[in-house]
Specification:
single chain, 426 residues, alpha+beta, eight-stranded mixed sheet, two-stranded antiparallel sheet
Length: 426
């Protein structure tokens, strides 16, 4: 007996002849929440890739063909798009979680399932109120209006679990959360897809980095915030570095009291780890350390160097609106210079004292005559017509040139940034 969603009948036992039972919780008259093994969801939502192969549609059942056509009305294509690559990355992420590599530091969002057909919903009495059970028809098919990439990732894991260090039951029996949308039409389903996929606000880089505790460079960076102590002129006392690093905005305003953003400090950490090759690693996740380096050694060595560097040049960081020392490209370049003093760096290494001596005669003023062509670009003020220095260049554009100016005597800018004007071209 099919009953209305708002008035299910009471029963006292499960009848497996009525369909596949799923325990559900009602949110609205059209929306329910359920927990089920992913393998059961796969029985309802087939591989979305087959919906994009016209020749394959002729071999599907009528229900499967209708499902594929509806799916193509709602979802984005997979072939030839970034979605395909994202599914592979997602599969690796889920596999790491299932293997236990990430501990409890992983999660996946609920699947949003639209069932164009009907569910047979019944009600059970329990000590805590009524429980709802839905019998899904054995041939029921549905469309995912959200989390299809996650679904495809599970399919990839199921197809070749050994390649991900898993066995098939780990994938098929994994319990997943499912939002079931029921008794709505195609137009409503398409709108839900739009809202769930296009209205979300992507966090800025600084917020994303602050949230990613599984990233090795981010772990080291957070360690610096607690370990490194800096004299702050405004406070008149020593303060932890975390007081001087902004973990929220992506960019600082001239009036902000902080010295740098979290992403800029993290760039310093990455280049301290890898040297100049680290410029290309500053914007992505970091899952491996350099050869011969451990987390304990990296944390200690970088903290020692950072403390000496930030304390020695604290005055210039305090005046960051008038200097170049806190520019993201400069911090990354300083990290690359610091790398030569790290215990895992190749020879020849320089001592910390030699590092400070190398940087001691640099002119940090934001002067285009000093820094044009390295950390910045000479330009003209639109308001006054006076020459000025733009620091708009990114780490990958300006980092290597800036590092050369700081530490390479063969660079024409080595003398320029130390105040020997006219050095370029000589």
């Amino acid at each position: 007996m099919n009953t209305t969603a708002t008035d299910p009948e009471y029963v006292d036992q499960v009848d497996l002849t009525r369909g596949r039972p799923v325990r559900i919780q009602q949110v609205t008259s059209q929306r329910y929440l359920a927990i089920m093994p992913w393998g059961q969801l796969f029985g309802i939502v087939p591989d979305p890739r087959q919906a994009e192969v016209p020749r394959a549609l002729q071999y599907l059942s009528t229900a499967q063909r209708e499902q594929a056509e509806l799916r193509n009305e709602i979802q984005r294509t997979i072939q030839g798009t970034k979605k395909k690559a994202n599914a592979k990355d997602y599969a690796r992420y889920i596999a790491a979680g299932l293997r236990g590599d990430r501990g409890e530091r992983w999660a996946t969002p609920p699947f949003a399932l639209w069932l164009p057909g009907d569910m047979d919903i019944v009600r059970f009495k329990s000590p805590f109120g009524d429980d709802l059970l839905a019998y899904m028809p054995f041939d029921a098919t549905g469309i995912l209006v959200d989390a299809e990439t996650q679904h495809l990732a599970h399919i990839l894991l199921q197809e070749d679990p050994g390649a991900y260090g898993l066995v098939k039951p780990q994938v098929t029996t994994r319990l997943v959360s499912v939002e079931i949308y029921h008794r709505i039409g195609l137009r409503d389903a398409r709108q839900i897809f739009h809202d769930r996929n296009l209205l979300g606000v992507i966090p800025n880089k600084n917020v994303a980095l602050a949230a990613d505790s599984s990233n090795l460079a981010t772990d080291i960076t957070f360690g610096l915030l607690e370990q490194v102590v800096i004299p702050e002129s405004a406070a008149g006392r020593d303060v932890p570095l975390e007081r001087l690093v902004s973990t929220r905005p992506r960019q600082l305003k001239a009036t902000d009291p902080e010295w740098m953003t979290l992403s800029s400090l993290r760039a310093f950490v990455v280049t301290a780890l890898f040297g100049r090759p680290g410029f290309d690693k500053t914007s992505g996740p970091l899952s491996e350390l350099p050869a011969g380096c451990t987390m304990e050694v990296a944390q200690s060595a970088i903290a020692e160097a950072a403390a000496l560097l930030f304390r020695t040049f604290a005055k210039h960081f305090d005046e960051r609106a008038d200097t170049v020392i806190a520019a993201p490209a400069m911090l990354a370049a300083l990290g690359a210079v610091v790398h030569r003093s790290m215990p895992w760096a190749g020879e020849p290494r320089r001592s910390i004292d030699q590092l400070l001596a190398l940087l001691s005669d640099i002119s940090w003023e934001r002067d285009p005559k000093l820094w044009d062509g390295s950390v910045g670009k000479a330009t003209t003020s639109a308001r006054t017509g006076a020459p000025m220095l733009s620091l708009a260049g990114g780490i990958k554009d300006s980092g290597s040139k800036t590092a050369a100016a700081l530490e390479d005597p063969a660079s024409p800018r080595y003398r320029q940034v130390r105040g020997y004007l006219g050095a370029v071209g000589q």
